[in-house]
Amino acid sequence: MKRKWSFFSIFNYAVLALVGFAMIYPFIYILAYSLNDGKDSMMGSIYFLPRKFTLENYAQVFDNARIWQAYRITIMRTLIGTFLHVVLCTLMAYALSKKTLPGRSFFTFYIFLPTIFSAGFIPFFITLQKLQLINTFWVYVLPMLYNFMHIVIIRTFLQGIPEELEESAKIDGYGDFQIFLRIILPLSGPVLATISLFIGVAHWNDWFSGAYYVSNKELIPVQTLLQEMLTEAEALSNSMQRASQQGGQTVGMASGAGATPESLRMALLVITVFPILCIYPFLQRYFVKGVMIGSVKG
């Protein structure tokens, strides 16, 4: 049986295809630029495929011995920070989802108040200093353990779970902690995956903490290190331009390798985005809340 195509269907698919292409093409361009010779890329006309293929841009990025240590710090903070954040927010949301919780309104307002008012950067820095978190690994994890909006999202999801499930579990002799582990958590897969993605991306993309709260080079995350490398590349480019204008000879990274600050920037972008692009499709399927369908039979 042939499928009938209406004008609306054709128009709808065409619009969706254009929107999808507009979202994907920047990644294609960045990847092609990063795999092309830097000096050749300055001529332009690179759209989908590299014209002069090379891995020199990535070789120069990874030639920095600190890059691997920075990746280890970033992976550790992302995994540990995401796990602890989801555990804490889920426990708080589960407690606040109970209407029988004494002082429920007070606790909700208490955790909501810091979301409205912020003391600013300097008081926050002094607080971290008094807690002896400055220049330690935990300065990446502890300040990001709490997020009111994530608690609200999880609490709203948990309030949608039928109370009959918990009541039947209590009849079977389950306590609150057993109900949380055996019933609530298995049904909360979609919202936990969503929150994990949110906080995981925040940890992975955070460069501010490493730039302002850490001076130990061994504890700098990859985002901060890549920013420093990009700054160094820009400084080298400026010095090369000044030397060229003065008729001198340039030495350094881009003098004979064919790499330019722009090509290195593209390689850095690929390195930064690639891990998230690999993880995101595996979490996307959990966003559908169909797991609740049929959980309660009438």
From TrEMBL:
Report keywords, A-Z: Cell membrane, Membrane, Transmembrane, Transmembrane helix, Transport
Check the record and name the CDD domains matching this protein: TM_PBP2 (cd06261)
ABC transmembrane type-1 domain boundaries:
71-277
**What InterPro entries has UniProt attached to this entry?**
MetI-like, MetI-like_sf
Chief localisation class = membrane
* Keyword hit for Transmembrane: yes
Q: Which domain of life is it from?
A: Bacteria
For membrane topology, the record states: Multi-pass membrane protein
- Report the subcellular localization: Cell membrane
Please indicate if the UniProt record lists Lipid biosynthesis as a keyword.
Answer: no
- Gene3D superfamilies, from UniProt? MetI-like
Membrane-crossing residue ranges in chain numbering? 12-35, 75-95, 107-126, 138-158, 179-204, 263-283
Regarding protein family, the annotation reads:
Belongs to the binding-protein-dependent transport system permease family.
Which PANTHER family does the record associate with it? ABC TRANSPORTER PERMEASE PROTEIN MG189-RELATED-RELATED, POLYGALACTURONAN_RHAMNOGALACTURONAN TRANSPORT SYSTEM PERMEASE PROTEIN YTCP
Name this protein carries in UniProt? Aldouronate transport system permease protein
Source species:
Paenibacillus lactis
